[in-house]
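Good morning C.,

I know you're traveling, so I'll keep this short. The sequence:
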Amino acid sequence: MVKIRMSRFGKHKNPIYRIVAIDSKSKRDGEYIALLGTYNKNLIPKLKLNKELINQYLKNGAQPSETVKNFLKNEGIWKQFVNSK
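The tokens, ready to paste straight into the viewer:
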């Protein structure tokens, strides 16, 4: 099963997160299938997402984590996906 979740990288006490499509059995920071966006709490804007690629993975059955699902709801991507079903 493919999941859409966050993968941590960056410096000590200065994390940056990649939003990735990854196999559910892989490690958090393991090899991922596709990079879908980034989240950096120290920058404005904090969130950058590839909406087309995220919609493609959601339509193919990828399951987002709770945090990523909240990001998608705030950006309006989740509502767009649910309405397209």
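Safe travels,
E.
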